[in-house]
Amino acid sequence: MRSKLPISSLVAGWILFPLPYALAFPSYASLRGLSARQEEPVEAQGGKVPPNPPGPPSFTGTKLVDDSDHPWQAPQSGDIRGPCPGLNTLASHGYLPRNGVASPSQIITAVQEGFNMDNAAARGATYTAHLLVGNVVADLLSIGGKTPLTGRDFPGENATGISEHGRFEGDASLTRVDDFHGDRIAFDQGLFDQASTFFNRFGNGFYNITVAAELRFHRIQQSISTNPEFNLMGLRHISAYGEAALPVNLFVDGRKTGAEKGQLDMDSALSFFKDFRFPSGFFRAAEPGGAQGADVIVTTHPVSPGRNEGAGNYVVDDSLGSVLDPCKFYTQFVNVTVRDLYPNPRGVLRRNLNLNLGFVYEALGDPSCPQVFPYGQD
Ligand code: HEM
């Protein structure tokens, strides 16, 4: 069921823990080479030219983010929330539009401002999500379910929002049940209680990288044994490990130093995961970060990418790449996953897909991984 992976094959992950030279590939020339014919009809079709990705902010230290300009408010009727406690928290504090619909640029700016997420990690996660579940023509993304607020959808079904199961949202989440078992979006108190026993057993009451490694492995084993449709392939193999590390780096108050750094207390965890709320007076991380430590989580209990063929029958399948092979993931993401969603794009749609694909490649930041162009380069 569980297969060991050679540690030597472990490479730095991508989306949520990009290679350090990610920033060596600025995206500021991305519109070059597009024909005037493709640019002209955008407004007429209700489309928007996606702007180049925001860069890192000028100040990247810790600061109070639970401030008077960003008071927490419970979601109002019609406000959208989804499976990500980070994005939900930013929306409930007004760093993102409180209705839960935002452009990729707004999301990148918000995760940097509110959590001090590293620029390349922010770009990688956001543009990947946008290509999978956003409205790439209108340049809008729902942080939860499908909504008319993201505009007219081309071809009419792809802009589902990040709650859509099997695109970015996936199985073995830490605080939400698998889609097969019920509501994959709602916070699950039983799973949080289970997590808290791991806080106590492995972290002296706190969530840290050691706890993350044990809990991540346990949740995967639970899903393998109970979910006949369990899937841990491609992006989910990357995100499952990255998301287990994020709370250690970004949910801990940035004023903590020494032995307290990287130790998330249970009340703060509950505040983020359940209430989508900064703990009172919260300071963001002291330096830009993302999924640092995910390599430790992977190597503590390595599990190959794969999927269940019936409960308890885990079949290794690396056809979509994994955290162990980010270049294969990138290539398959573009050539298989995105192409399946958009087999024959034209006009504005094709132009915007190409721009967003370029943004994803730039976030990868790996010059040894060749860029692929499924829709041509003009
Ligand atoms: C940059 C854009 C981001 C996108 C597109 C994104 C998207 C997502 C998605 C789709 C999930 C659900 C995956 C699943 O099924 O478990 C998720 C989970 C998660 N996200 Fe985000 N996220 C982003 C940023 C952040 C940030 C800034 C944080 C922390 C400050 C964060 C923390 C988490 C955590 C801890 C989970 C796991 C929840 C669980 O397992 O119960 N994310 N994210």
Description:
The chain is mainly alpha-helical and 378 residues long. The chain has a single domain, classed as Chloroperoxidase-like (Chloroperoxidase), CATH 1.10.489. 37% of the residues lie in helices and 4% in strands. It contains 11 helices and 7 strands. The chain has helices spanning 36-39, 85-92, 104-115, 119-133, 189-203, 209-226, 235-250, 266-275, 294-300, 326-341, 347-364; strands at 101-102, 141-142, 206-207, 231-232, 264-265, 306-308, 314-316. The strands form 3 sheets. The protein has a 3-stranded antiparallel sheet with strand order 4-6-7. Strands 1-2 form a two-stranded antiparallel sheet. A two-stranded antiparallel sheet has the order 3-5. Strand 6 (306-308) and strand 7 form a beta hairpin. Helix 3 runs antiparallel to helix 4, helix 4 (119-133) packs antiparallel against helix 11 (347-364) and helix 6 (209-226) crosses helix 9. It is globular, with a radius of gyration of 20 Å. The N and C termini lie far apart (46 Å). The model is unreliable at 1-44 (pLDDT under 50). The site of protoporphyrin IX containing FE has 26 residues, from helix 2, helix 3, helix 4 and helix 7.
